[in-house]
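Morning run. Coffee first, then this:
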Amino acid sequence: MMKILNLYAGIGGNRKLWEDVEVIAIEIDDNIAKIYQDLFPNDKVIITDAHLFLLNNFQKFDFIWSSPPCPSHSKMHKLNTKAKIVYPDMKLYEEILLLKHYFRGKWCVENVCSFYKPLITPQELQRHYFWANFLITKKEFPTEKTCTINDRERLSKLFGFNLDKYNGVDKRLLLRNCVLPELGLHILNCAFRKEQTKQLSIPPNPKGLGILEATL
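And here it is:
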């Protein structure tokens, strides 16, 4: 069975449709981790620093998904005149470089489309940047166009999570931070399908395709 590390797991939007996999989920917030464990009782949930856990354990997995905190990179943060000016969190690029140069399995790092030109070229799909050592094929997810809404009821329907019974968390924000489950499944399929391996037997054009060369 494929062993997957799901970093900065949140409530598991990206993981929702994965099947026949062994998942270790890392989440630092106790309340959020409890929700994830309730939603995915067969996953092992560890409450710890995902960045440090990755450094010490990355070679134990077949596939790694990481979604580091995104606010310091986001366009919305920069446009918010009331927001405190902070350094962009470079842990994002630390993880990309670690996985690119040291990890032998398949991996994907997800983040928001940034207010600056990315320091390492990503692949782009929907409202996300993805850095990965495989080609993520283009695919339309019409419902993701509603992800910018603030209506918690509509977000709950979109992502397929009912959080009504949980307290002590910002439910709208948890839902807003989810990766669309269909998109999470699409990326996992891109990483391991046979036609993907065949496609990458030809060196890709490096322009605009992220860091595919890591798989060749």
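Confidence is low (pLDDT under 50) at residues 194-207. Good start to the day.
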